[in-house]
Model the fold of this input.
Amino acid sequence: MESTSGLPVTYLLKPGELTLKGGNKREFERALRRNLETLLRFTGAVVSPAQGRYFVHASKDDAEKVEEALSRLIGISGWAKTRVCGKTPEEVLRACVETAGECYDSGIRTFKVEARRTDKSFPLDSYAIRSQGGSAILEAWPGLRVDVRSPQGIINVEIRERAYVYGMEHRGLRGLPVGTAGRGLLLLSGGIDSPVAGFMMLSRGMRVDAVYFHAYPYTSEEARQKVARLAEILGRYALGMKLYTVGFTAVQLRIKEGAPEPWSTVLLRMAMMECAEKLALRECLKCLITGESLSQVASQTIENLSCTQSRISLPVLRPLIGMDKEDIIRKSEALGAYAVSILPYEDCCVIFSPPHPVLRGRPAEAEELYQKLDLAGLIGEALHTCTVEKCAYPSRKPDNED
Ligand code: ATP
Ligand code: MG
Done:
């Protein structure tokens, strides 16, 4: 079957929340289209927007890459491979029957037909499309039954400039298109939480770069590579991301030698925040993002969080603050980071963590201890020597070629 552009496979995309965004709608639509075209860069696919929908026309050879791209696109509520046919009842009903056959083959036994007709000149109205479509399907596939309340499958018909018929709809990532909500700096460790935090801010449209504090040789090269892999995974949704690696060994050792042991984690976090803020200001990033979740560990009590951010003025976004660990893990799995996050390479914070950390640090005491350490020079030096890697996405290399 030929689509409008002459390419044989067509996908229909439903934009998500951006349909609600009044005045900014045009900007959101532009960003979504730009992101979609970026994701499809190494395919011959063509994008065409039409009245609240986007269509992607591709060759069969590109279908797998296109589907991979659609599964990474933030800002759509759903997408489906669609049949495109002429606007005659015969063609539309035939497409309904063929689509229902595919649904049957995939195990679906109950269905309903939904219809949307923006072209009112089409001879059947929505009700007639639903009822005639349903009858044609039942006649062709006696194993299928209609269930209007909770069908296993829905055959969708949209009559627009052409007629579109589709069955299996994939859930999109939702959220708002990346690039519509400013830029932030994610403090990315090798754990489960921070990649999820980064993904959540990407889903609100923020562009995200990441910083990792490395304490070589106390943390290994493998630990750094693990973080680089996490940045690469996030970069697939961010459409590329920068990863800054800051050597923090000297800072950590100064804290270990110069501060009471129970305070070491809180002071280290303060130093990371201070350094991250300097980096963010240098790179024109508007906020810091962390994977902190209230009371998950000693350094994340509300008192210790106050200490941690007491020296900085950029907003600190903590999208996981009220989340349960199991929900975080589920999100980590969904974004494809979990298997990497649980690799066993140690985190610098784990190595330096005290057996009996302070649980409710007072910001005034934290400040006094922090001042005594005189870290400004070491932090400045660490920033000066920090390295940056650009994880481009998409690249010509397939995702699974690690
Ligand atoms: P994660 O699983 O993301 O490491 P966590 O539960 O281990 O989180 P902590 O180790 O206490 O929590 O770290 C809290 C947050 O501080 C992390 O989510 C991350 O944003 C930041 N962070 C911790 N260690 C580092 C690091 N080495 N480099 C950059 N950011 C870090
Ligand atoms: Mg950690």
Notes: The pocket of adenosine-5'-triphosphate (ligand 1) is lined by residues 187-189, 191-194, 211-213, 272, 290-292, 296-297, 299, 347-349 (CB under 6 Å). The mean pLDDT is 92.
